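Model it.
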Amino acid sequence: MLASYAFFAFTLGFSWFLLAPLVPTLVGQLHVGLGAVILFISFYGYAMIFGSLFAGWWVARRGPRRVLVTSVLLSVLGLLLRAWSHSYGLFFVGQGLAALAYPLLISPIGSILRMAGITRRKAATGLTIGSLFFGMSVGAFLGGRLGLPMAFWLGWVLNVLAGIWLVIRAPKKSSLGGKKESFQVHFHPSSWWLVGFAVASTSVMMGGIATPVLAHMHVAKPEVVGGMLGGLTFLGSGVGASLFGALGERGTQGIGLQRMLAVFTWLFLLGVVLEFSGAVSMPIVGLEVLFFLLGAFGNGWYSLALEESARTAVDVGNAGLNTAGFSMASNIGVAVIPTYLGVMVFTHAGWWAILTLVLGLLGLWVPFSVKRRVTLGNRPVHTVRR
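Modeled.
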């Protein structure tokens, strides 16, 4: 089941970020302003904010199959309407439907993996999140080369094939045994959500402000370089989530690995902040390496923290609700931080640098606050240093 789950995540990421390099083309084709098209890219973030907890609740109450099948149907129908449309209204509807597939697929991952009987869950979480980022990276790189309408039709075809595979492989009942698959819903916010909030918001902010900052620095072809930095971040994120998720299976806790990833993520964030605030100057290749490593270490840490949040749940049903909360917190950060903090890089660069690094420290605090793990019944619990 894991291979079909990860491949469907890849096609979602691929289909979504095909859109980024095609924004200028769509502005002309749909006869709308730039902001109206950029809004389409943000749809998945809003869907994650408003749909994550519902997805976690649904899996807890009814198991994973109905949620996964609904995710496939919404994605296939939405991407079909998007590829078929020549009007803004139809494109809006198609993109909106496809966006709803995201929280249903990704947010309750903690319960989906457990109910499917997958035991190496850190590696499985890393593979799934990594596949999503690999898809984003390939879509960002290929969208402009494929052009319209080929890019959208290719995304739809791959999504259909992956969706059929996932529906066939999706568990028809929980692998836990027993007849009842419904759980008492317990909603417990976790400090691990701070990692999702900090990592997602800072990485998206850096990608979002890269092109205008490079233009402000009078770098040649800032759009090309900025697009390359974004693609490298996605590529690094895919590599890091897959690699460090697998490495996290070694040992019983993986807290040491998380601490290492947290420190290096903050250091790479520091490097980008110093460059963008004008404190240091480095060649473009150095900035490209920084963006790749920020994506790799940041989202390697992100995937481990995502699984860690699931491990603090009271049962397997609520594990998906915990990861749903993690996803919701991440996308609240994506919706708020780049919009309000990102613009400060041009008006108050010093304060922007300080606040960005403090935000990174907020996430860095979490794995270092964990002292030890104890088990109460079937609920793994972290104790936190006071």
